[in-house]
Amino acid sequence: MEYAIEVAREEAERIVGRKTRFSKPPQPEHGDLASSIAFEKAREIKKTPGAIAEEIIAKAKPSAYFEKISALNGFINFHFSDVFYEEVLKQALEESYGASKKFAGKKYVVEFSQPNVGKPFHVGHIRGTILGDSVANILQSQGWEVVRVNYLGDSGTQVAKLILALDLFKDMPPATDEKKMLEYYVRIHKEIEAKSELAEHARVLLEKIEGGDAEVIKKVWSIRKKSYEAFQRNYDLLGVRFDEVVGESEFVAQAKKAVFEALEKKTAFKDKGGETVVKLEPELPNFVLLRSNGTTLYSTRDLALADWKFEKFDFDESVVFTAGEQNLYFRQIIRTLELLGRKYAKHYAHIGFGLISLEEGKLSTREGRVVFLEDVLNDVISYAKDEVIKRAHDYPKKEIDDIAHVVGIGAAKFAVLRITPEKNIVFNLKRMVDFEGDTGAYVQYTAVRANSIVRKAGSSAIKIKNGENFNPAERRVLRLLAEYPAVLQSSASSLSTHTLCNYLLELCASFNAFYANTPVLEGGSEKEKRVAIVKATAQTLENGLALLGIKTPERM
Question: Where do the domains of the chain lie, and which CATH numbers do they carry?
Fold first, then answer.
């Protein structure tokens, strides 16, 4: 399906005579699409933009989608017609509105979440987890086949130190869950600071992990199993799933092969200390690929992981979501893949996001300054329950609990997804779940309200007659509904969610203004058309929230 907004832009390009970008005029009365083509042509010919704009308008052939074409300060402004808005309304009532098959047959591998085993799944993990999940949803809406990969940190120094702690501290309670393991992790770091010889013990354990020592690997998998039980509880609360879950320890052997390849191709060299180093200077800083004792690092294993993903999934595009602290690191990884001759490297991307911190400072697993995500989500649900009870005294307890779960999780997700990825977030529970203002709960409530109106009207009340006329309030809602497919396309191409969040908030504001000032159920001859607008709005809000991984309750 070609959406009305796409056809309108094609028509506008035909009128101005070339492909160009359009903007939205700052004032609604100035029109719906603005072209700066006259300014572009003014650089080519000796005429003012105003004169060129007037000439283009004088030669323009009529288009059913525009009721008027005007010039203002050199800009050519296109004003949508009732024919356009009628087509938008018909399309917006389709369940698949906004979806596209443009990338059908193409595969996108999305890697996200990536918690370290033996460490708690804290509030800082929410961002990468829900950002990756939501982007995967949006990509699927545009026709991509998406593979969701979770890459667990189950190798490396932190795991070796935790194994050492579990072997040493027999006076502590058994490490039956992530909170108990955190106590071991904090204590071993304090002990290593006091007794340097313990660092050597941890180093030996790391070598045994790398060497595949059966007894040590058994301990690694035991830690991984206990950790993933906690991870899965969080994923269940968030409604997040994965197609593949793999761990670093599975790529050690392949990683060492990548080191030999890098040396053979002279992409890497051995320094005086015996470490294998990738040569990237002066373009980027060099980085270590293999320690002098022969053990691998994150970098080594990430090269092996990249090869594995391409060999297994034969992807067209791949993206890794991690904290922005790793931006430089992933530039180094991708450049190394290019130097190794991996053709897929130009399709291997990384998105870095800002950190979530406590109001009193940065999260630290070593110091035990952690807010467990599971605790936070349960607190959010509890807070939402209090708000629901204030508004719905007569709801059954089970329904209140269900609504609180959907609203609480939705509020937490929306608060994070609305922020542009590069910005840091200072964590504050009440701000995240504020039911007033620009929040997920506000979007959910607007969708619930719109659905309630449609139920009261009855499905038979949704009809669109040919030749409909639309007043300014109706047009404002429909103008936003027209943009929904473009918003999804933009979100998919930028691999981000904040544009969609802000769009949903804007649609809610426009719809609520429309409903406050325009009779719907008592709309007389206008009722069927207006109920159709309400239905289209409700459906778009629900679908947009669903792509963000947020459910819409039946009532609130």
Answer: 4-80 (3.30.1360.70), 112-266+295-358 (3.40.50.620), 382-547 (1.10.730.10)
